[in-house]
Design goal:
217 residues, alpha/beta, 8 helices, 4 strands, 39% helix, globular
């Protein structure tokens, strides 16, 4: 996004599956694009569902409803572009057709749409940054089981991350395991530790696709 093409007061809007995901994306995008003015990122609580689970015949109606929400927001604050997040809930490259479906469904919007689709769930990406994850809680083990591997092949990433941060042999019921709200804090740690640039601990095609979307925004 060239500085000269950006109008004062324009907002980058983030839609996503839940509050934690939207706030996590807000942290990551802000860290990846330090050129963006402070306060230019906005996450909206509604709508949550974009295309997943929506029958093909109902997609136009869904797109109309989402468009109405965005147009209403645009009357208050002008929109520059929109990031739309949904989890793939499947192995890479399942993110590719879902990205295409989201961007095709919402291509009639008057603003650029950038789909963000992690493999399985956003927790997939945290396997790229085991140091950042482990730094969040003293009792956590670094989830480094996938060093050098393709984390886009990790099934049920959220549950797998919970398993991986628990040290071997720790059966204490008082152990503080991973919770979805930790995602925002992990993103902040990733940025704070300067881990957003390669090399990363593992590989993820959906992460690279996200970086390309942010760069192109």
């Amino acid at each position: 996004m060239a500085e000269g093409s950006r109008k004062p007061g324009e907002r980058i809007v983030i839609l996503g599956e839940d509050d934690n995901d939207r706030k996590t994306l807000k942290v990551l995008i802000a860290a990846l694009r330090p050129d963006l003015p402070a306060g230019s990122l906005r996450d909206l609580r509604e709508p949550i569902t974009l295309v997943k689970g929506v029958p093909p015949e109902r997609l136009p109606t869904k797109a109309t409803k989402v468009s109405a929400v965005l147009r209403a927001y645009n009357r208050r604050e002008p929109i520059r572009c929109v990031f739309m997040h949904e989890d793939a809930d499947d192995f890479d490259p399942a993110h590719v057709p879902l990205i295409e479906k989201i961007e095709k469904t919402y291509r009639s919007l008057p603003w650029p749409v950038h789909a963000v689709v992690p493999a399985w769930e956003m927790e997939t990406w945290w396997f790229l940054f085991p140091t950042a994850v482990a730094s969040l809680h003293r009792s956590w083990r670094a989830p480094d089981q996938y060093l050098g591997k393709d984390v886009g092949r990790v099934r049920d990433a959220k549950e797998r991350l919970r398993q991986c941060v628990r040290p071997a042999g720790n059966r204490s019921t008082a152990f503080r395991s991973y919770a979805e709200s930790d995602s925002v804090h992990i993103a902040k740690k990733v940025a704070e530790l300067g881990l957003l640039t390669p090399p990363w601990a593992a590989r993820s095609a959906s992460w690279l696709a996200f970086l390309e979307k942010v760069e192109a925004a």
